[in-house]
């Protein structure tokens, strides 16, 4: 299968590209800089120069492909306005790709996030949040999944709060960055709230499996660790960086504060049984031991 991918040189994307190429697929990667172009080509992919805002370029990439994987997102969480702008840009790109694929029955795998449900693990049948800081992404994913009725084999790969590799990535990586900047390995609330996690190399396998065989209009959970307490995550970060571990105000985490403070464990039992996906790489707490002081 010839696969067009956005975000193909990021933490998750580079793992997905390697997984696709290692399993007999070819890759056309959207790249927006000389550095990302070089990285994608060194990995073995062909490249198409452009960003998420270049809708004509993105549509041309989709037109050339047997399937599409969308991973790119403008990860600016500095303000609510910046997040909203990133969501709007992503929405236009996703729907542009979807329109290009209508009537073709080609697969379109979209990155999404695991929902949170009060008092229990979230599952693949739970609905995405449609309000709040990332509610716009949920509405976009739902609209893309509805394209299944128009001949697009859309699937949503729901990623947990932390996708990690070698101690970096996701909310765990953000906590590490904030700890380095503030001098405290902090966590919101009492720290008992749980975050799910997955290693990037395991997530990449699920993207490939979904692209190859998942039915149209379905959602899947890329969850290896159902939920680690945030204070346990902060404790490893603090020990690796030789910093104190303390609760800090939720407001210190900016627009993501309410999400950071939420208890959001998640299950992947249905995904594992149905697609035969089985995570094999280190857990988040194990991987954070790779943080360099």
Q: What are the SSEs and their pairings?
A:
Elements: E1 2-6, H1 11-22, E2 26-31, H2 34-43, E3 46-49, H3 55-63, E4 67-70, H4 80-101, E5 107-113, H5 135-145, E6 153-159, E7 162-164, H6 170-182, E8 185-187, E9 194-199, H7 200-213, E10 218-221, E11 225-229, H8 230-241, E12 245-247, H9 257-260, H10 269-275, H11 284-287
Parallel strand pairs: 1-2, 1-4, 2-3, 4-5, 5-6, 6-10, 7-9, 8-12
Antiparallel strand pairs: 9-11
Helix pairs in contact: 1-7, 3-4, 4-5, 6-8
GO cellular component, one term: cytoplasm
GO molecular function: aldehyde dehydrogenase (NAD+) activity
Protein name: 3-beta hydroxysteroid dehydrogenase
Q: For this structure, what is the CATH homologous superfamily of the largest domain?
A: NAD(P)-binding Rossmann-like Domain
Secondary-structure arrangement, i.e. CATH architecture of the largest domain: 3-Layer(aba) Sandwich
For the secondary structure, the number of strands is: 12
What is the top-level CATH class of the largest domain? Alpha Beta
CATH topology type of the largest domain: Rossmann fold
Overall tally of structural domains:
2
Q: Indicate the percent of residues in helices.
A: 40-55%
Task: Give the biggest beta sheet.
Answer: 7 strands, parallel
GO molecular function: aldehyde dehydrogenase (NAD+) activity
Region (Disordered): 264-293
Pfam families: Epimerase
Protein name: 3-beta hydroxysteroid dehydrogenase
């Amino acid at each position: 299968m010839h696969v067009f991918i956005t975000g193909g040189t990021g933490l998750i994307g580079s793992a997905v590209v390697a997984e696709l190429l290692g399993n007999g697929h070819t890759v056309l990667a959207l790249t927006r800089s000389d550095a990302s172009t070089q990285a994608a080509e060194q990995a073995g992919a062909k490249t198409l120069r452009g960003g998420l805002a270049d809708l004509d370029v993105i549509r041309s990439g989709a037109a050339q492909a047997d399937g599409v994987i969308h991973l790119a997102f403008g990860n600016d969480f500095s303000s609510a306005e910046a997040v909203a702008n990133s969501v709007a840009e992503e929405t236009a790109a996703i729907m542009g790709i979807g329109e290009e694929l209508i009537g073709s029955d080609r697969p379109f795998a979209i990155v999404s996030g695991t929902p949170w449900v009060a008092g229990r693990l979230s599952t693949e049948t739970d609905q995405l949040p449609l309000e709040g800081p990332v509610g716009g992404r949920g509405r976009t994913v739902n609209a893309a999944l509805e394209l299944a009725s128009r001949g697009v084999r859309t699937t949503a790969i729901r990623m947990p709060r932390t996708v990690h590799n070698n101690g970096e990535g996701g909310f765990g990586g953000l906590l590490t960055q904030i700890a380095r900047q503030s001098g405290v390995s902090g966590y919101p609330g009492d720290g008992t709230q749980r975050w799910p996690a997955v290693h990037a190399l395991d997530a990449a396998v699920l993207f490939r499996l979904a692209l190859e065989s998942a039915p149209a209009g379905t959602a899947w959970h890329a969850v290896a660790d159902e939920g680690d307490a945030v204070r346990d995550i902060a404790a490893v970060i603090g020990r690796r960086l030789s910093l104190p571990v303390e609760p800090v105000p939720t407001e210190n985490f900016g627009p993501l504060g309410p999400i950071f403070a939420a208890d959001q464990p998640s299950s992947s039992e249905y995904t594992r049984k149905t697609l035969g996906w089985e995570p094999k790489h280190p857990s988040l707490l194990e991987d954070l031991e790779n943080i360099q002081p």
